[in-house]
Amino acid sequence: MNAILDYFEYVWNQLADIGIIDLLDIAIVALLLFWVIKFVRGRRAGKLLLGVAFLFVLLLLSNLFEMRALNYILNGVFSVGLIAIVIVFQPELRSALEKVGGVSDNFKGRLDGDEAAVLKSAIGEIVVAVEELSKQKTGALIVFERNTRLGDVIRTGTTIDAVTSSFLLGNIFYNKAPLHDGAVIIRKGRIHAAGCFLPLSSNENIVKELGTRHRAAIGMSENSDALVLVVSEETGAISIAADGNLQRNLTRKKLESYLATNLIGEDKKHIAEVVKGKIFKRGGDTKDEE
To answer: Which of 46, 93, 201, 272 could form a disulfide with 218 if both were Cys (CB 3.0 to 4.6 A apart)?
Structure first.
């Protein structure tokens, strides 16, 4: 009984010595661990980290039970472990550092009036185009650049730098157009480039029914903070990829709301400036609805 009381007294004394700095230290470490777990969950890095943890447990056991041969091998492995981890986790580390580097941009606040107006108009045009592409079952990939610059992706395509238009998007993704297989990059509300190639996701948990476009959308969202809009060529379903996750079968209203909330910061169901009465036909011919 005295031993138990002594133990609780020891714990109480340790807790009594905790100061504000200690609490801050614990909170920061907890947030870092939470962020790391959230980042690697569902990615290839999660399985690799489990392998590293297994080797670390073996190292502890080899020390405990004096397994000299195993301990010698594992010590050799962990002596170069940092370099090995950097090499193995290179894609994940790059993605993580890019997102951490973009955190400071999030403190800039809401967009100014001109930027918000351009984005509103662009979203309205894109929603009209995507709805028509969905009806025609014409595949499309549209990437919305945010804090992470996508210059390396843009260089794989053709620079356009044009005002976002539903008619232009319809012509770009027309299945006989030269740029229809690649992705369109939207930068600051303008069509900046088209025909761009996106990195494919290596996530083994992606359902097999998803094709190359969806894997490219997920891969792009894993490697940056971009939002990627996909129209399926097989079903016409509209999906959005963000942070390595895919939201499927979006309706026009949900798409408008999602883009307005995540690109402009507006929490409303519709965008007032949605372009109305426009359709485009195969071959690029356009007309207004009567």
So the answer is: 201
Q: Do 274 and 143 share a structural domain?
A: yes
Residues 78 and 146 in one domain: no
Residues 232, 180, single domain; the answer is yes
Enter the pTM of the model: 0.64
Strand partners, 241: 228, 246
200 DSSP 8-state letter:
P
What does the pLDDT look like over 151-208, one tens digit per residue?
A: 889 999 999 999 999 999 999 999 889 999 899 999 989 999 999 999 988 777 788 8
Q: 106, 130, 150: which is the final residue of a domain? A: 106
Q: Are the C-beta atoms of residues 146 and 124 closer than 8 Å to each other?
A: no
Query: 254 burial class (0-12, 13-18, 19+ CB within 10 angstroms)?
Result: middle
CA distance 230 to 217: 7
How would you label 179-193 residue by residue, b for 16+ Cβ within 10 Å and e otherwise?
A: bbebbbbbbebebbb
Radius of gyration of the chain (CA): 25
Among 62, 86, 106, the domain-final residue is: 106
DSSP 124: H
